[in-house]
Design a protein that fits this description.
The protein is an alpha/beta fold. Helices cover 41% and strands 18% of the residues.
């Protein structure tokens, strides 16, 4: 008997699969037995690197797409096979205090973090590209859930909007057998943290994490795998926080 935690035979699409959490998601999905990973991002070269890291038994389909462009999203959907699961992981951020926000910042961040997954999900449903049953996972953030900090307002607001969209989608799509859930990571251990944050600031920040460290990308990906699997068949409309206890402090 196949484990309910297995993704054997499933086709899973992952946006933002060229690096970080998205790349880890693709690798762990393949290790969980997925038949095919559909890898989506702007950087085709980086997507090919991700594809080379997948389990040998997992096929890959690389689709380069600018998710900030609505026409590109429509074109993308035409090339996508019927899916058993989706991880909407692509996202961007710009740290700016409120007085320095520009209208373009709002459009850019909301465009990729919230509007793109909303438009892509709409197109996938309309063109019957999601199987019954299937699972949709949104990468949100504790910045839009429980953790408010100076300079992160647009990003946090975009993730809060994404979370609200997830809940409405879960309600509307339940009759089609499509489950929708959101994962809310705290800080994740990636090279970008050390590139843009001083080691002193990292040490101070880590004191607010009861487990004493940031998440590893694969630890977030393992939750994706669970939500994509049949083991989570009765979970929809839920928020899962992965922050090492950060939201408790």
């Amino acid at each position: 008997m196949t484990s309910p935690f297995s993704l054997t035979g499933k086709t899973i699409l992952i946006t933002g699969a060229s690096s970080g959490i998205g790349r880890a998601a693709a690798i762990e999905v393949s290790r969980a037995g997925a038949d095919c990973c559909v890898l989506v991002a702007r950087n085709e070269k980086a997507l090919k690197e991700t594809a080379s890291m997948l389990s040998e038994s997992c096929r890959s389909l690389i689709l380069s797409c600018d998710l900030s462009d609505a026409d590109s999203i429509q074109s993308l959907v035409n090339d996508i096979p019927v899916l058993d699961g989706v991880v909407f992981n692509a996202g961007i951020n710009k740290m700016k205090p409120l007085p320095f926000w520009a209208e373009t910042d709002l459009h850019d961040i909301f465009g990729v973090n919230c509007f793109a997954p909303a438009l892509l999900l709409k197109s996938l449903v309309r063109k019957k590209k999601l199987a019954n049953p299937s699972s949709v996972v949104f990468t949100a953030s504790i910045s839009g859930h429980s953790n408010v900090s100076v300079g992160n307002g647009i990003y946090g607001a975009s993730k809060a909007a994404l979370t609200a969209f997830m809940k409405y989608s879960a309600l509307e799509l339940a009759s089609k057998g499509i489950r929708c859930n959101a994962v809310h990571p705290g800080r994740v251990e990636t090279p970008l943290i050390h590139k843009f944050t001083s080691e002193e600031d990292i040490r101070k920040d880590l004191t607010r994490y009861p487990l004493g460290r940031y998440a590893l990308p694969e630890e977030v990906a393992w939750t994706f795998v669970y939500l994509l699997s049949d083991a989570a068949a009765y979970i929809t409309g839920s928020d899962i926080v992965i922050d090492g206890g950060r939201s408790l402090t």
